[in-house]
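notes to self, project folder thing:

trying the whole complex as one job this time. last attempt i did each chain seperately and stitching them together was a nightmare. three parts in total, labels are on each line so i dont mix them up again. if this works i'll redo the older ones the same way
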Amino acid sequence: MRRKNILIAAVALILLSLGLMLEQFWLKVATEALIMMLLAISFSLLYGHTGLLSFGQGAYFGVGAYGFALAFTRLHLDFPLCLLVGVVSAGLWAAATGYLCVRLAGIYFAIMTVVVAQSTFFIIFQWYSLTGGDNGIQGLVPPDVISGTRGYYYFALAIVSAAFYAYYRLINSPFGLSLRCIRENMIRAKFVGIDEHKHRLKVFILSGLFAGLAGVLFAPFTRSVVPQMADWISSGKAVFMGILGGASYLLGPLVGAAAWVFLDAFVSGFTVHWPLIIGILVFVIVFFMPGGLMGLVHSYRVRAKARKRGSSGLLSDGTET
Amino acid sequence: MELFINQVFSGLVRSALYFLVTSGLTLLFGVVGTLNMAHFSLYMIASYLTWTFHTMLRGFEFSFWSAFILASAGMCILGWIIERLVMRHIYERELGDQLLITFAMVYILDDVTKIIWGSNPLFVARPAILTGVISWGGISLPASDIFVLLLGLVSGLGTWYLLARTRTGRILRAAYSHKEMLPALGIPIHRIYTGIFVLSVLLASIAGSAWTLMGMVDLGQAHTLLIEAFCVMVIGGMGSFVGTAVSAVICGLTYSFAILYVPKIATLLIFVLTGIILVFRPWGLMGTSGRLH
Amino acid sequence: MAEILRTEKLTKHFGGVMAVSGVNLVVNRGDIHAVIGPNGAGKSTLFNLITNYFEPSAGRVLFKGQDITGRPAHAICRMGLARSFQLTNIYPKLTVFESVQMSLLSIEGLAGSLFGSTGKLLQEDTENVLEMVGLIEQRDLIGNLLSHGDKKRLELAITLGNRPEMLLMDEPTAGMAPDETWEIVDLVNKLRLEENLTILFTEHDMDVVFEMADRVSVLHQGLVICDAVPEEVQKDEMVRECYLGSAWPVTS
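result (full assembly):
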């Protein structure tokens, strides 16, 4: 327990000092990594914790971003209020589309999420009078205090930390355990009194909120929004970050998003064939490291513990990492 | 009236394209139980391959038809390679892994396509025989569209005949319902799966070649068709070959009339249709929940 | 004696096959009630109909006087009717503790709660249930790593966590070694005394049936052909003829 606290303090210190140490380019990369963590969390809640494979989280990312952008440019609301409008619109869109998706199971669910994501992209793309079509919306400049690269880094750090805490509480709550029961054995879960339909809709909306928050933070970060934020490539990003880190582990989405964004920034420096690398990476993960990066850490820790005890030492495979 | 007939006709042409692109996917899912997300990328590669062979054979009298056949052969070989290298290792894995791996293939195949053919749209000239328009009263039907329609019909009937009327078809249907029995009967299940996968790629390839008669060959062609093709598959009932044909016609006609009256949201309308059907029939028109996990 | 469960003309056919036809069954509060019958007699189907795992083709199910036909599984469970399955049905990757805690949380109406931490909630109650079935030592192991007998115990603990008034057990000792079987029998007897549970179960082991049951219903080809105390069932001519016969020697 004490070691855990020291670790948290150390990570906090590093994250805080990064804002002062990093140069412009890498500070921007770090900010993007922070924001993408929320998108990865959104995927992990569904896949890692509930066993629902969604290829559609980009839709809520996009709706969040556009909700913010429209409130900002059309309604001229205050910045914090715009953030709220974005997150709420993502939540509402998740509720409406989720109602349709969670009626379905397995592969039907997965396909339906693809259809929803592409349709969302399509609506944004075609609704020219409202969204500006493929021109997107520009000029989303945050208030002066956080408009600089460093300022925005700290702003994102604060929001993401709070959201991460909410996610942590969520998966440790009784609701979080119910989700894992549904993932492990849907029928058993039903027969101990869990209304799985209601639970799946609830987690779908919650994960939509996380994706929406990511979109809301991303819009002022790039100062603009484009329809491609909502398409299935954007959704694919959530999928890949989630499984790269290990979707069923608490820290999985954070590690996955950070690894992804930094790798992207690094690789883009010398090749344009990032998609090819991603594809190969996924092959490696699925075939050789099914738990993602946190899975590796976990199995290393289990082995270390076993060595200490001199037994097989197979313990809980849960989320307490 | 003429307008109506023209619209029905163009809807049926669209249906043929939907059917060609989706039937391979349905076939693979129905027999093997695996959904290949990269199916649409293979369809796109087939278009590029048709372009390449067509360009190589420029000046030759039957260049388009030769390119068509060569592309089909090439895609079968590519399909065989992918089956041996990748698909074979994921049939027995859980749903999530199957989707992730085939999704990763989308990225790999799309990027490789970009490396080989570049990002500019390419154009395949129609053969002389398909450039004309067949007019009849106020009705005018482009010859190339008639060809695509025929292609859809012939491929559909051919595959249906294979499934429903031949010994191979009986074995394939057995592979679906009594997987564990086949090895006991001395039937090599792996070879069946390889064959089915190659057949599914061949259908995608025919769709890809057909597309070169309808529009530009480009990197986005798979993505624009994707949502509609998935809807066709879901509406028909996943794994149901006949269901796919029926829903291809429904979606094709919906699209062609929507494009006339509400052009901006034609694709969206198909999605809404899917939503409505799923509310009442969660497993599609002709599907069963049997395959669901 | 007060009745707790009643089925009225409960019927299920799959296509043309009649799996359960017009079953009228009454279970009295506090009884251990066995349903026996040859393979394919419709025992499992009957259980699945009662808990609405399958929807009945006709007839209805009354639990504590209320019509529960067609109610969702989770609602039936919340009313105090819990079940276990023939093939062990646990959460493969959750710990023993979490598995049982879930049932308790669910019955307390906390399954959807976003507040509180599962580390401590209802810890004592969960441990009591684990103590009762003898799994307290294994509380931090994941379900998959348990022995077959312990998995069966875990499933029993999961259903007990729901604090049911009535328990449906489909073949509670299937696939168990003889000594494990008798441990389960003792456990169930103890439960009935301590928790005042009503139990309806199916079982293929006739020794177990006649050792445990207060009342036995015999199902044959989807019909109840006999419903009586064990001694009478053993004497019943019709049962002997069509079921016990020479292939099923009663050794108790």
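what i see at first glance: Chain B touches chain A through 40 residues (CB under 8 Å).
need to look closer tmrw
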